[in-house]
Automatic annotation (TrEMBL):
CDD domains: terB
Lineage summary: Bacteria, Pseudomonadati, Thermodesulfobacteriota, Desulfobacteria, Desulfobacterales
Record Pfam families: TerB (PF05099)
Annotated protein name in UniProt: Tellurite resistance protein, TerB-like
Gene3D superfamilies with a match to the protein in the record: TerB-like
Region annotation (Disordered) ranges: 167-212
InterPro entries to which the protein is assigned, alphabetical: DjlA_N (IPR007791), TerB-like (IPR029024)
Residues annotated as domain Co-chaperone DjlA N-terminal: 16-133
Amino acid sequence: MVFTRIKKAKNKNFMEAVAAGSAMVAFADTMIRPEETSKLLDYARIEESLKVFNPAEIIETFEKYIENFHFDSRVGREKALKAIQKIERSSEEARLVVFVCCAIGSADGEFDNNQRLAVREICRVLGLNPEQFSLDLKAPKPENFPRPAKTATYTKQTTTDNIPEWMKNTSNILPKPGKHEKKTENMPEWMKNPPKIQKQKKSNKPDMPQWMKNPSEIIKQHQENKNIPGWMRKIK
């Protein structure tokens, strides 16, 4: 009995770290599944350091950390990492904690990126390299890609309620091919008798200045010196 208590006290931190890490990974996808709890119990039955603990005690510790996450994700994360930090960095126990967390993440058959990121953070706290545990993030599936918004479809309008009457039946307005008879029954009055526009007579002569029309008059004035100033007339 005393030996069991000593062993439990020695392995208390390891059990707390396993339960806290399992809760952190299980809550990463915001849904706690029965497969994850069952996986934790399976590990408790095969791990020597956890056999001294009653399975109900391990589940109770696991649920304690889950309740912290339900209260607030930041509070839950802080308390879980604080329990995990009690494990010696880069030790064999640290590696076991990470392996258990990976098993919890893939218990339901889908180890998604949110759970992988949680385990990567646990690796950082324990001084381990995530690449050693195959924790690369997966590319999203095509069905998870954002779908483009549906474009508006054009429906061809077949109704003729808003079409003027003269557009519905153009046979009375337009002549049939090959016929040049003018039908004027449905034509407006102004189209039947359009106003006549008087054509202006075109003149071939451009609008010439006055002095070009009567050059002889200009020459005569020049000869008589009528337009020469007086002071120029007196100069000899």
